[in-house]
Design goal:
By secondary structure, this protein is of the alpha+beta class. The chain has a single domain, classed as Alpha/alpha barrel (Glycosyltransferase). Helices cover about 40% and strands about 10% of the residues. The protein is built from 13 helices and 17 strands. A hairpin with a 5-residue loop joins strand 13 and strand 14.
């Protein structure tokens, strides 16, 4: 699905900007001035014309009159969920590190302060920040300037990406901005308090989570199609939409920035949960969410209890990431069973099903009326029912991890032709414009086919790529 492809590209971009991927190139002397000028012109337009209170949405029409996140955004709303404010802020930080130009740091600080405004009393964030206390997305903010719910969320990397930007800006400012530093520490404390004893995280929290037993995953011993539908499934153990992987990235950055032993301990415990959450034979994969008894459960009406192809691959990749930072072999123990299982569970076209029926292992789908079926010919179009297989690359990384090799995180360097294309695609006003082709994209904006628009993901990607092209990060004085 288009949405899933966009999410994969966005996730790669976020890893670049989190500082978890390495391998910058060195710009030639002939191109450096042109790259710097392009970056400054694009960033100046984005910061001075597109920003609202220092923050951003997903898309803005070329005339700046329409703004969209997950739906229409008011003139006082910004988006936290990637590719919103944290994504853009991290791109500014990448530009600052590459150039030493304080303009970019100031723009990143503005984005961080916009997030500080929208931090909830529970310590995290919801998908948007509303600067109008009576606006449709207003929530229970720590600063008292909002009203509404207090639901901090880890869905779609929302709180995780906000925290990473705050951590990185706090570090860039040598921890001297009291508002940003306080928000970062409160957010980290809240994230740690939201971790269950077994290492899992819920999708949503309003305060510290309750004590629960630590158990191993098992198949439901009841009629799972109709029974045990938990209304508030967001309080249960969640892996859906890369939740654990985003949390692992956040804990790694927290440990790097603050040398906080609690973050490393939480990372280990998260790994413990992923080991526990592997289902037994004959389906040693992972589900999207589990109940207190560690049984796969329903979430939304199109998310049944099942072995999940996408979430299983992400669980394995997260375990590799955790192993890289802890060097603990126990996090590699689930791999042989899981890899063998998914090799024999591929679809005819080589992909994996999003869902495999519990115990029968038949690929499981939904009709357009959200009824379970084994037929893949009449599927709801808003969801990814099949996923590309990454089993071979996971298996290579697993083999390397057993030999003590580091995971490969080096990016392919940009070619001069690619740099030239990015530079030439910037228009005379300083915009990288996209044209809506009618396909489904993240947020599903209400643009007309052929309408030009400005996308935060495109701006952030291009600014980060050009920053990487300039060369290794520089040590700069921001005073």
């Amino acid at each position: 699905m288009q949405r899933n492809r966009s999410q994969r590209g966005l996730r790669y971009l976020l890893l670049v900007m989190y500082g978890l991927l390495a391998g910058p190139t060195i710009a030639t002397a002939q191109s450096r001035d042109e790259v710097l000028a392009t970056m400054k012109r694009a960033a100046t337009y984005y910061h001075t014309r597109v920003a609202v209170h220092g923050g951003y949405v997903y898309y803005t029409s070329s005339d700046l009159q329409q703004r969209f996140g997950e739906g229409v955004a008011s003139p006082e709303q910004i988006w936290v969920q990637p590719p919103g404010t944290p994504t853009v802020g991290l791109a500014y930080l990448a530009a600052w590190r590459a150039t030493g130009d304080k303009f970019y740091l100031d723009a990143a600080i503005d984005a961080a302060r916009a997030l500080v405004h929208g931090q909830l009393r529970s310590g995290g964030w919801t998908n948007a920040v509303d600067f109008n206390p009576r606006g449709s997305h207003s929530a229970d903010y720590r600063n008292g300037q909002g009203r509404g719910k207090n639901n901090s969320t880890l869905d779609d990397g929302i709180t995780q990406s906000a925290l990473v930007l705050l951590f990185r800006v706090d570090q860039a400012l040598d921890f001297r901005d009291s508002a940003i530093h306080d928000a970062a520490k409160v957010g980290l404390d809240a994230l740690l308090a939201a971790q269950y004893a077994n290492g899992a995280f819920p999708q949503v929290w309003t305060g510290p989570v309750p004590a629960r037993p630590v158990l191993k995953a098992k198949f439901p011993d009841y009629a799972w199609r109709t029974e045990n539908r938990i209304k508030e499934y967001w309080n249960e153990y969640t892996l859906n939409d890369d939740l654990a992987s985003y949390v692992a990235d956040t804990l790694i950055v927290a440990h790097e920035v603050y040398r906080d032993a609690r973050a490393l301990a939480a990372l280990r415990t998260l790994g413990d949960f992923l080991v526990l959450a592997q289902l037994p034979e004959p389906q040693p994969g992972w589900a999207q969410q589990y109940d207190t008894e560690m049984r796969p459960i329903w979430a939304r009406k199109f998310e049944p209890p099942a072995v999940a192809g996408r979430e299983t691959q992400t669980a394995l990749e997260t375990l590799l990431k955790i192993h890289r930072h802890t060097h603990d072999a126990k996090f590699l123990e689930p791999f042989p069973r899981a890899l063998a299982y998914f090799k024999r569970s591929r679809l005819a076209d080589g992909r994996l099903s999003r869902y495999y029926e519990l115990q029968t292992n038949r690929p499981l789908y939904m009709t357009e009326r959200y009824e379970l079926t084994y037929d893949d010919t009449n599927l709801p179009v808003h969801y990814g029912w099949k996923t590309e297989s990454r089993i071979e690359s996971i298996e290579r990384d697993f083999a390397g991890a057993k030999l003590g090799k580091e995971l490969s995180t080096v990016k392919e360097p940009l070619t001069a032709a690619q740099v030239t294309e990015i530079i030439k695609s910037l228009d005379t006003e300083g915009r990288w414009l996209s044209t809506y082709d009618g396909s489904m994209i993240v947020g599903q904006p209400k643009f007309k086919p052929g309408q030009p628009y400005i996308a935060s993901a495109v701006f952030s990607r291009n600014l980060t790529l050009l920053s990487d092209y300039l060369g290794a990060p520089k040590i700069v004085n921001h005073d």
